[in-house]
Amino acid sequence: MSGKRTRNDAMSGRKKKSGSTAPHEIIVQRLASEPDTKQTFRPVKPREFVNFEYEELSLVNLKKACAAHFNLPASTCDILVSNKGPSCTNIGQIPHRKDKVYLVRFVVMQDDQPLSEDGVEVYYEDSISTSHPNRNYPASVSIDALLKAGKVAKPQPKNKVTITFEAFDIESREWTEVMEEELLVDTKKFASGGFRDAFHATGKKSAKNHQPTEWVVKTYNARAKSTIEGIASTSVENHCRKQVQMHAVARHFTKKFDSKAPSSF
Q: Which residue stretches belong to region Disordered (predicted)?
């Protein structure tokens, strides 16, 4: 039968030392690179005799012997505990089988994998290419939510505005433009105070996490505008600039006091 394993009686020309306990050949069962739907590594070939020319029976030497036999890189050789895994990391993890068969698979690895101390490239499970699709299942959704999906959901109206940010220099008493940001501002306020209303806004995507930047835009309400323009006899813009200028003065004094404050009292 073609499926039977054949033994190569022509031993390697290299002779082992008299004290070596390593076998001259081992029996290997090659398995598939990837598990099936039942998470089992299936055989892809019949069992074979593999020449073992090394003095020591170690995991590294087993991988080298199998790789040389199948004419594949030793860095892709993986020896399993069973046909369901896991991968062996040392020779002591290989179970003592009565038939003395080593379960081997060959995996695909990245080009930039590091070398281990014994000179064999190390591979990682996340570098293995797979033909199975990534099975990410959606979260459970209630029947009520599914039925409501049939109703038209209108997007929340937003206003597209361009806001110019300015800074006040207390020494030169001049205003300078710092940056300009284009925002989508909700038309419905989410909070309101005695003088101003707060609106949620989103800007461009952040380069750090690729998520839209979030802002809070505050505007004076109708009552505050009436007070500013009627009683204070000034515009809303001039009133805001005065506030920022006075804050700059307060910040200047705070920094001065902080620099002169003793380290301990």
A: 1-40
